[in-house]
Specification:
CATH class of the largest domain: Alpha Beta
CATH architecture of the largest domain: Alpha-Beta Barrel
CATH superfamily of the largest domain: MutM-like, N-terminal
Number of helices: 7
CATH topology of the largest domain: N-terminal domain of MutM-like DNA repair proteins
Helix content: 25-40%
Number of domains: 2
Distance between the termini: 29 Å
Shape: elongated
Oligomer: single chain
Length: 272
């Protein structure tokens, strides 16, 4: 599933390519993408409106319109949103196609049909979201804030980082990479970590995300379908049996919360 860096890369691209454009027609090619909203009501709420901004919260994308409606997009596993230079040539995997007044098209491309797009009254948007923790790259996200949240959680460190109600936007890939950079075992009880280790983890989260976002921007600029962390120099994620770049110990994998967790048994030894 696209994580904060991937969604932020999409947001930046939409900020550049879509903001200011007016939607003159919408083609719902898969009704399930907007369910439970009804197709005609969905179209009526957005056609004729101009896109005035591109925003992100955690893994959610928002395109506010000038009529008081916001397009709320969740990419799920394979979703992607981008502007086509010519609305006459949509991709086969386009689930929604928004024709713009200049002949271009905004497309929601989703091979596995898991993504969702809804038209929501902008004033009601906050209430429609699940509980979300602070944004890890926000200027208000301080070390103290992070430590205070961590001290209240008995969850293993990896699952804690992936809990969107604790820290918004992290997923399987970048949680594993941040724990590696901080030299913390994924199974370490979060509340038991020392202040020094939590400080290292706080810095690692921000460092990993700041490196990952431009990597995602470069990857999305390539033709063809994009895979998460395509250009990010991963140290452990997906590298089971390969040498750790730091100590050459073979990277290990274990199951946590129904997902694979990758880590270095030497650099991240112990649970405290």
């Amino acid at each position: 599933m696209p994580e904060l860096p991937e969604v932020e890369a999409v947001r930046r691209r939409l900020q550049r390519d879509a903001v200011g454009a007016r939607i003159v027609h919408s083609d719902v090619r898969r009704a399930g993408t907007i369910a439970p909203q009804e197709v005609n009501a969905f179209r009526a709420s957005i056609e004729g409106a101009r896109i005035i901004d591109a925003r992100r919260r955690a893994k959610h994308l928002f395109l506010p319109l000038d009529n008081g409606v916001t397009l709320h997009m969740h990419l799920r596993m394979t979703g992607n949103v981008y502007v086509l230079p010519d609305c006459r040539f949509p991709p086969l995997r386009a689930r929604l196609l928004f024709t713009l007044e200049d002949g271009r098209a905004l497309t929601f491309d989703d091979p596995r049909c898991l993504g969702r797009v809804h038209a929501v009254a902008t004033d009601d948007l906050a209430a429609s979201l699940p509980p979300l923790g602070p944004e890890p790259l926000d200027g208000t996200f301080s070390l103290k804030t992070f430590v205070d949240i961590a001290r209240k959680s008995q969850m293993p460190a990896k699952l804690f980082l992936m809990d969107q109600s604790k820290i918004a936007g992290l997923g399987n890939i970048y949680a594993a990479e941040a724990l590696y950079e901080a030299r913390i075992h994924p199974a370490a009880p979060t509340a038991a970590l020392s202040t020094v280790r939590l400080g290292r983890l706080y810095s690692a989260i921000r460092q990993v995300l700041e490196v990952a976002i431009p990597c995602c921007e470069r990857a999305y600029a390539k033709p063809g379908h994009f895979a998460e962390a395509d250009e990010y120099p991963m140290a452990v994620y997906g590298r089971e049996g390969l040498p750790c770049p730091r100590c050459r110990t073979l990277v290990a994998r274990m199951a946590q919360g129904g997902r694979s967790t990758y880590f270095c048994p030497r650099c991240q030894r112990g649970v405290l």
